[in-house]
């Protein structure tokens, strides 16, 4: 492994997200996947950075409690935040189209909370990326939703997919954060174990 200090751990990613799995593999890490299956509830008074950090911590703690002593668990949760509210994952095509219409021609934030836990250490942190969407036509939105079915994605889109190529004017912050894992920050915190 690139980070020699991690050799003493069994790395576990507490996420079924194929994007998070891909990004961790690209870091050169060997890990297994163990989904937490926690109820994704958070106190209603939580703000945009507290929500994903809290949910990531819930997931990591659950998996950590079920894992061997030498485990190092990485969990993450990503939300889209616009107009002081969470824009969730769409349930169906109608909702996906409505979410993309809401994001079209405007700016929003993507926040990923991360929790990394071993038996003796725990770090929780977040990253925020500002995203600006161009005005999208109804035809573009329908095309994207029909072909990519973004029902497992916060905000109903994936920046690495067609909609990101044609619809996103610019971002400020980490591209990989919008994909679901702020890889640079994760790497920096892994070096502390």
**Structural class, from helix and strand content?**
alpha/beta
Number of strands: 7
Distance between the termini: 14 Å
Helix-strand topology string: EHEHEEHEEHHEHH
**Nearest-integer average pLDDT:** 95
How do the strands and helices of this protein lay out in sequence?
Blueprint: E1 10-13, H1 18-26, E2 32-33, H2 50-65, E3 71-82, E4 85-87, H3 93-103, E5 107-117, E6 122-133, H4 138-148, H5 162-167, E7 168-172, H6 175-179, H7 183-190
Parallel strand pairs: 1-2, 1-3
Antiparallel strand pairs: 3-4, 3-5, 5-6, 6-7
Helix pairs in contact: 3-4
Describe the 3D structure:
Helix content is 34%, strand content 25%. The relative contact order is 0.18. The chain contains 7 helices and 7 strands. It is of the alpha/beta class and 193 residues long.
């Amino acid at each position: 492994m690139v980070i020699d200090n991690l050799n003493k751990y069994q790395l576990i990613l507490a996420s079924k997200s194929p994007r998070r799995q891909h990004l961790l593999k690209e870091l050169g890490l060997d890990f297994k996947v163990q989904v937490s299956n926690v109820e994704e509830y958070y106190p209603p008074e939580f703000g945009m950075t507290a929500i994903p950090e809290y949910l990531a911590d819930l997931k990591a703690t659950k998996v950590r409690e079920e894992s061997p002593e030498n485990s190092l668990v990485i969990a993450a949760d990503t939300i889209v935040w616009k107009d002081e509210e969470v824009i969730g994952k769409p349930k169906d095509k109608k909702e996906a189209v409505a979410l993309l219409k809401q994001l079209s021609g405007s700016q929003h934030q993507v926040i990923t909370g991360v929790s990394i836990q071993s038996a003796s250490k725990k770090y929780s942190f977040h990253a925020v990326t500002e995203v600006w969407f161009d005005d999208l036509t109804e035809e573009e939105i329908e095309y994207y939703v029909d072909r990519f079915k973004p029902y497992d994605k916060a905000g109903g889109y994936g920046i690495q997919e067609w909609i990101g190529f044609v619809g996103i004017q610019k971002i400020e912050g980490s591209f990989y954060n919008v994909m679901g894992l702020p890889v640079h920050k994760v790497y920096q915190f892994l070096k502390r174990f």
